[in-house]
Amino acid sequence: MPLAAGTKLGPYEILGALGAGGMGEVYRARDSRLDRQVAVKILPSSFSSDPDRLRRFQQEATAAAALNDPGILAVYDVGSHDGTPYVVSELLEGETLRDRLRAGALPRRKAIEFAVQIARALAAAHDKGIVHRDLKPENLFVTREGRIKILDFGLAKFVRPEEKAGSHTSAPTVETSPGLVMGTVGYMSPEQVRGQPADLRSDIFAFGAVLYEMLCGQRAFKGETPADAMSAILKEDPPDMAETGREISPALERVVRHCLEKNSKERFHSAHDVAFALENISQTSQSGVSIQAAPRSHIVPKLGTVVWLLGLVLAAAAAFFAGRSGQRGSLPTFHRLTYERGMILSARFAPDAHTIAYSASWESKPVRVFSTPADSPQSRSLEFESAVLLGISRSGEMALALGGKVTNHLVFRDATLARAPLAGGAPREVLEQVTAADWAPDGTLAVVHHVGGRTRLEYPIGKVLYETSGWIDYIRFSPAGDRIAFLLHPAWPDDRGFAAVIDLAGNEKNLSREWEGTHGLAWSPRGDEIWFTASFGGTNRGLYAVTLSGQQRTVLQVPGGLALHDIAADGRVLLGFDTERVGMRGSRDGAAERELTWLGWSTPQAISPDGGRVLFTEQAEPAGSNYWVTIRTFDGSPPVRLGEGSAGGFSPDVKWAASSLPGKGDRVTLLPTGAGQPREVAIPGLEQIWEAGFLPDGKRLVIDGAEHGHAFRSFVVDIAGGKPTAVTPEGVHSIVLSSDGQYLAAQGMAKNITIYPLDGKPARTIPGTAGMLPVQWNTDGRFLFATVPDEFPTRVLRIEVATGRQELLRRLLPGDSAGVYRLQDVTLSPDGKTYAYSYGQCLSDLYVVEGLR
Question: Which of 377, 567, 571, 834 has CA atoms 20 to 30 A from the CA of 200?
Fold first, then answer.
């Protein structure tokens, strides 16, 4: 019997019916706790006794709840009322794509817009190991705002994170009988029609059928009976799009056809690649540039990357060149060198210009140095483990960073500089605490050296050309050897910064504007320009060039993360294509760990005292250059954006969250977590502030910042006003305060956990804590929780402050660890039962590019 208005299902009050289908009845309801309207789907009692329907109903909730993407229906809650299961989700206003298509084909622009949204949402599901298996217009919802939402995961298949396309090992939570046909006729892939296991490429086939229908206004595979339609899927190709009377570009039709290949191995292997292809077609169309198809041999789709080279990068490059010259010129060519799954940290041309050396971590293995011919992907290991290539001299000698750790933005820190012949031989150590180095034409070395919390550019080693409280990377000598170019970042660990140059007399000049993210730099062969890769926001980095007078131009702009590694004397360019993200995971009170990432660059900073909410910083592209301070619960409910800045800590009553703007050192903003207006707290005398937290009295703040010309340290300042008081020495900084507000814990100069009393008494080091990082005090101050950040998995320890006695609390590691280069920002509740952490992950491919100008 349908539910009447006013019926209560726990905290949900039924307002009216929305519809009914094969998997249940849907109602509009009010959530009395949060005073918002939601959708409630119930499984009628007549169905709840059917094990298969009940399993599918529960599976739909489980699959959708495991995902957090704007293109997928958000599930808020599940429950049971008088034996009737129900699922609570966001309330959508609009219509299904099937309803929209009843009027015929969509405009080309709108079809591509919808298709990109669907592909991005599918990619989010596939990244979590979820295959939908029933994608069709009825399961795609168009909101009134024009956003697409994927619905109905009742047939979803869960696969292990490590399962790749073509592997059919499914998790034990889902079982299907061999030969069982799963899906909807007309949108099933050939393998589904045959009753064979479906993987993510089955979703891509269904996606192609939906895109065909959006563009042409008719189904790709039709028949008078279901058997006829299934036969068409197995044996026939859809009618040419031109036959439907629609003007479809050849590039767009190729994308659709590539999705609809009968053999799954010949389809796109990733929804990321599909989205990338469509975005480039859209951009190229807007630029008015016509691109010829690249040879089929150049198509190299790969799971987990954003690179598909059927005229995609070429299209973006051609659009740029056409814009510069007003006419078509020769297009750049791309030769792929790597195919493994993992991250590339650096790459260089050898002196012979034919050999390429690079540092990479493949399939979660330690970083190694490899070499490969420039015209063939035949890499071999040079047997240098935990080593990053920094440069190659003209005589063929390598500069290596040994034994360091990969940190934010793929920077190698705490490493030892060593020299080793490219031809083979043991490395010879030169200098500790080095993050970057390059060879001058005469074979001497310039280095980036960390001393006393400061970053120095030294040339020759020991002579300081430039010093900063921020950080420097990608130092490169000009071809003439008279200047050094580098990327200058005002504050660690933020990667915003400038392209800069310095002469050998120490005269430094910033050449570019300040970018939100910078990563990779090299000189042009003539030495008249410095090329670098940078982004206005997020990881969508382009390739740019700037002259010594500061004139800047765009060389190449494509969706995705470009990383410039090197430029040869003949103009060939070593470019990395990176898919980079910082994910966030966590657990409350011992529950199963779940993904908490929002937009793809989420870092936790604090957990509320009750363990219910996590405060985090979102740095993905939509957040802009100032980032977002955000709060969310551990149940997967949508996050709430509080304001701009980097998150710090909660006030004792959790009514405020501290925020600091990147690059601004004169103020902290207090953002209300509920109703109210932000408050600004002036912090006189500081040049940089990275984060801020509250003392237990709620009247003072602890600041992680730096005075002008000095390294970062910790300060205490009154919210009411006044000059900050230093608590730690320069180079030591933290906001980890004891619950009584009397002590601050930080990693001291000797890398041991050190306790700093706020009243100025002598500091005390906890024995046996070398290399550990304090993250939280327990409630009574007897214990500290700490991590060992250089380990995989990363240990979380409970340490007795008085004795140093240690107890293992847990180990942290995301399920898919390929390309994971660091676990960081571990945050715990005072009882240690609730936690969150972030993990950096980068999946890279390396290309030799010819023809860039």
Answer: 377
